């Protein structure tokens, strides 16, 4: 009996164990998932029907959850963070494996922290705030496209149309602020910017919109980017239409909220579309497919039966696919864990009272909830919205956007955008692999009709409203007033720079209302850096004047195309040498003059020696021969000599001599011309290097960038720099010189120096400009007007008008020219010509040597002849040395013909 009872007990124990194992391995009959969203909203109405359809389809498909029923627990957030949080707690109390939603980014921030606390995934089909993808919310997954993607598309659209600045209209909540912040980051990458931000309260009214839009009329940009929640009343555009802001020159760009709204009320009321004429925006791209067409067909049937009270929008597609993604993931989760279980977390235990609405002790942590998140992020299937996959930021991989334009009360798709291909008229899925790659293909959109009905792309900005013309600051100069200043009597602004600006406005194809604002105390020139800073700080809209384009200024403002060169030069005293009566002696040094004169004498002697025996022009009385000899030498300088050379040796000498004369006379002429036309400096300064090396004081103009350049770039001590305020002070300081309280030189810009030198003859420019710079008009950073002004200045220069304006102001007494010179006279030294003199000397000596050798040979033959004749006579031959020398000179003094006859045999002579 005892054995039977033990066996019976063992059997029952095994039964209980086996039943436990079976129960544990068996899948649950149902799984709960929560859905927190705003029931009565554009997105919520479509999402509710879509999620119910998806749950019904999942439960009808035995291949998904293998018999487990999917329950959808819906909670209304009513557009409230507080109510949305309560709804999330209520759903969690019922043991949900995942929460779907919410559609509001602000509510998503709160529920994400709740979901993280209980390890429950939060999957949103409509919360687009980019910051939800941060590591702060590891359980948040997004099945719709993030605003970071949409704002990249928006920035590309703005850049594609060439607009530089925009005005952002947005809700001042997490969704609006963070979306516009993402847009600002993307624009900055393209060197564009949001010029003004118009913040709207969450529950904005018509008066608030009216006030903001009226304020924006005085702004320059006319491109509006609207990023708000779906608004069936279209309040922003209704007010903009009443304020006549849906006309020419305005651009209205919208994010996908508008077309989600319009799609929900399809077909749209024509009256609503009439206020949207010319609006351009984005709609999330849902590629055409059989699944999509099937869902749309079923939806229309539900509308016809009265089950669905809204049309299907893009968020409805994403909500439908979200249910399927969760169902697939739960199925895979249960394959790994067999069941869905929850456990108590003691940290959430609180004393229970009757007044407690939310019983925190009922909140349980989802066991292995992180595994479900991992499975969800590995999702990869084709849904009604396209391919559903997630990237590393837990966002769905973008399928791109449709670019929509509203024209003549019709919603038209004018192109597509994807992050891979940019803008195209071909849907992203139809692009071949070869065409993929950011902007690899030509960016293109179909024709867009803009507000006002024009197809021409709007400029996107205006100078200003009539109530506030362009405020232009001009320097009130007290010196060099020809450039720009304010007249004391009439308070009118005039000058060279003002005329250039006004003339350039004629080349701009639109009106530019403006007013000049002179700045200065009337006693000294204002500091130009402070004027430029005023523009950078938006105190003024531009600065017009003689503003040098230098590095520190280009960092804070944009400059137009330069209209004048303003390089720095050095001005110093000069002496005018043209009044010197003996200036003609300056081309040659004393050595050069002495050698040249000696050369004339030497050539005269050489030619006379070589020509005396053979040329009758060089024979005669001694006085005549001396005159002939020197006149021939001097006349070679002017090539007027009457005597001709006969001897071959003389001709050879003359060739070299005439070449020497040609070089000497050409050099003399060039040097004398330079001396007579170029003023000579009285200062030893030869350029910026010698000026810096000296310890002399240097003058500069008050307000000029010369001071900062000398101290910061050339490291000149500020104690050496003397500020000068007028041309009169320039002249006085230079005349005094460094030893008498003046300056050794002045460093200033070329335009001022030219004007100064046009009235002064005692000063001149030394050396070359040592820094290149120009003048331009300054505008705020990224100002579109700066580009148009640059184009106008280029046209002004090409047409010749710029030169005419310059001649009008600075060429009344003749245009000033730069006067440059060296520090030493342009004298020619003997060292430059010693080679020529040496060559001429060598040739002359060679000719004389040949002549002498030939003459000695003839004399020897002559003496031998005399000796032979003397042997037959009684006369003794001469033997004294002096007598021999005298006889030799007498011999060579004879004509060449007489000598030749001496050696010719006499036919009548019997010997």
TrEMBL record:
A Pfam family: ANF_receptor
| Ranges that cross the membrane | 590-610, 649-670, 833-853
Q: Where in the cell is it found?
A: Membrane
Provide the primary localization. Answer: membrane
Record has Chaperone as a keyword? no
Q: Which UniProt keywords apply?
A: Glycoprotein, Ion channel, Ion transport, Ligand-gated ion channel, Membrane, Receptor, Signal, Transmembrane, Transmembrane helix, Transport
Q: Which residues form the Ionotropic glutamate receptor C-terminal domain?
A: 471-812
Write down the superkingdom of origin. Answer: Eukaryota
Q: Quote the PANTHER family the UniProt record gives.
A: IONOTROPIC GLUTAMATE RECEPTOR
According to its UniProt entry, the function of this protein is described as:
Glutamate-gated receptor that probably acts as non-selective cation channel.
Protein name per its UniProtKB record? Glutamate receptor
Which organism does this sequence originate in? Crotalaria pallida
